[in-house]
Predict the structure.
Amino acid sequence: MARLHLHPIGASLPTLLGPDELARHAAHNDGLDAALADKVATTHDGWGDKARQRVADKGKLPTWDRIEALKDPGSDVFEVGTLVNWGRSFAGSSRLAPGAGVVTAFVRIHDRWCIVIANDNTVASGAWWPQTPEKIERAQEMALRLRLPVVYLVDCSGLFLPEQARSFAGARGAGHIFKQNSRLAEAGVPQVAGVFGDCIAGGGYMPIISDHVVMTESAYMVIAGAALIRGAKSLSLTSLDIGGPEVHVHQSGCADVRVPDDATALRHLRDAVGRLPSSAVDFYRHGAVPAPPRHAPEELGSLFPPDFRQGYDIEQVLARLVDASLFHEVMPDVGREIVTGVARIDGLWVGIVANRQGLVDEPGIGKRPGGALYREGIAKISTFTRSCNDDGLPIVWLQDISGFDIGVEAERLGLLGYGSNLIYGNSTHTTPMFTVLLRKASGAGFYAMAGMPYDPVVQLSTPHTRLAVMEGRTLAIATYNSKLDDDFQIASDDPDERARIEAGMAEVASRIEGDMDPVDAASRMDTDEVVPLGQLRAWLACLVACAWQGTGHRRTKNPRIWSLHDVEVLCPRR
């Protein structure tokens, strides 16, 4: 059986855009990237130089220095949840909680991708704030879905008590972290932990289920700290006396190795990961050699116009994401508002589903707006993704969607039924799915294109992303519909009433525009990370490699026996 043939796509930027248009696009994108970079830098700064000095005075390394020592030299770290809690204040603290006081990231160790979960010891000594448990659990879920080793760098003073009601109880409260520890262990996912300092109450439980636990001389794990025990039992003790390495390495057996300092502990953790089975990535490349796109990924931001209502060519986006800018489109002559196809990213096969923008010419129907879902496109996605799931191909979803087609004809054609079919597929696929919200992520289209409620392993946004049920102006019209005429103009001759309605509509539109901001979405954990478009290729290379790294835990077929070959025969090109 013949393999699917990849074809070159894309063109150089100067042939696509005039110099003025190119400059305008680039300037807008650069402004968005710079604003995002400032927020990320603020988060990484934690509580600042004084906090880092306090850590150093204790003979410990700041969290980001620990990650730098842990990762392979020269490799990139792909952080998720960077902006969780951005801009949120909390009772009992005059300071914010950048990153919810914890770092979660994809980190390469001995050429194996791992999930690292590290308390930020420069933010309230690594305390757990509201959304800290959810952020840790989300990272654990990524590790479980991809079967990636987990490395915990524990330095946690326990719950931030003034806000305990928002992080202790509930289905996603702190206790769920330990359930996730157990689920990972049950699934055979390796977990290793380094304990570097405070490890109190829930923080003491987090490392215990790990397969390998290392403690430094300044570390302790306790159910209750010395201050609480002194108050309850009138004893003069330190936390090290109660639960230091002398106790847990040599007496309780709750830890395995005792080391003098952070640097030694990190070497032990690296060695532990190095003893795990090697990555299967090279095996699953089937002899392919990774190749960069022929068109630079750094150009991606220049393709996107400042006005989200203007279109762009999705093939030009793909040409800056996939190896050698080679792509094989599947079912190209039906449902043309959707692009489905296969390509390699970093030498590894991946299925891609993307929204096409602008006017689309659908055979037998005529022209209709892209960026929406019609019956043919919905059926095409369902068929394609079921084949990818059957063949074991990871799926990358590139969203820029305003929603489903609506109206009398859409209902007559049964879009609700076809949409339900697609939702069923997205809900039951076992192959890893990664979703990128390129720009618009609106209404039920956000769900249909594997948005967060449909469980992608990772959902990325870009600085251009607008995530909401509907746009601000549209929602304002819906809110004040009873006050408007058929042309959506204010239906009142009373100047005072007109002014009140205008002000109310403007307030609603402004508030919704704020809610749609990708940083706000990331702060609420409605998306996992906001990524500059120019970094998207590197992110996808990481995620696709993570999907192929392990063996034996999901269906993977070699390319000769893909179901997609059958789809090619049944849907020949016109």
